[in-house]
Amino acid sequence: MTEPPQTAEPTTPEPEAPAPVPDGRAPQTPAAVRRRAVLAGTAVSLLLILAIVFGSRLLRDFDSALLPYAVATVFLAFGVAYRYTVWISAPGARRLFRQGWGSFFSAANFRRAPTALPRMIATYLGFQKFLGARSHARWAAHQLLFWGCVLAALITFPLTWGWFTFTSSTGDGPGYEMRIWGFKVLGFDSLNIVGWLMFHGLDIAAVLVIAGAAYFLWRRMKDRGAITGQRFAYDLIPLIALIVISVTGLLLTFSSIFLHGGGYEFLAVLHMVSVVFTLIYIPFGKFFHIVQRPAAVGMQLFKYTSRRKDEELRTCRRCHEPIDTADYVDNLRGTMKDLKLDFDAWAEYCPRCKRVLRGNAYLTHVKKGYQ
Question: Environment class of residue 278 by beta-carbon count within 10 Å: exposed (0-12), middle (13-18) or buried (19+)?
Fold first, then answer.
């Protein structure tokens, strides 16, 4: 029996094609990346602190009881900026960042397809239609989770920073005024439907989050595919944290309405601890994909606009079926070269031909050695 060769090459000859030039930047040392990330995180944190001070009218509208939440958001800002800087320092992510945000803010793309960006923001970011192709139940649960978190963030962050205030126009209600940065925006009666929604927005968000997170938690307990690859700290802790935040928030409302404040202080501390933990966890766990997603929207826009240039599609070098636009294929090859993947020429083959070539190479070189 002869020893099989260590590598397998496609039997179909691969003519040389001009490859895109990588971005040309010298490799960055981990220490240099960390230093730049720390500087970026510090700058963003300082900007947020200044925004809190001036947005709350020099802390006149800042509620000292919410100080732990505000401090957690500063740590959140530092962590997001730090992690994002480290992320885009990698060659592949840097190209994604450059192409994605370049397409996102491109005036030429807006003139060529003025409705493309709003539609992709709505369908890809807002309603995540790509999840519906996998499972309608997962899409519905993700929508509940997403919109619940968005609603909670839109209410909690401005209140924590002192940007929003609710004051009684009569001293003891039921009339209230909502002010933003000290300017009156809305007056409402706390006893009508508008007032109820204003004061119970976080409760509504909690119900949405519990429904969505409970589904994913149930799925991770029952679905074999999810169980096989899941990690406790990465996949389960975020869901548990969201459920704890939502349940303790609802219990605060329950205590104030039905128990006359019984157990309120303990629940408030528990709720605060869970929120602070989750905010600090966001940049370094699964929730970081929330920050990465807009760059992916930019890449979708890049693909869409490049297809509208009426240019010829790049065809497969084996079967000559269309693959994608030349811009997209060249960008993919450039990313592979940035990552020092020396098989970037395979980007010019369709998926079917890649499988055929790999199979032929295996039959010709590998299996032959065991006959």
Answer: buried
- Nearest-angstrom CA–CA distance, 2 and 128: 53
Of 214, 220, 222, which Cα lies nearest the Cα of 246? 214
- Residue 45's pLDDT band, with cuts at 50, 70 and 90, is very high
The CB density around residue 290, as the number of other CB atoms within 10 Å, is 16
- Intra-chain end-to-end CA distance of the chain, in Å: 7
* Centroid of chain to Cα 299: 14
- pLDDT: which is higher, 34 or 190: 34
Angle ∠(196,202,206) on CA atoms, nearest 5: 125
Q: Which of 301, 325, 329 minimizes the C-alpha distance to 312?
A: 325
**Token pair of 334 as six digits:** 């450039």
What is the rounded CA–CA span in Å between residue 326 and residue 300? 15
This prediction has a pTM of 0.75
Among 198, 218, 283, 212, residue whose Cα is nearest residue 242: 212
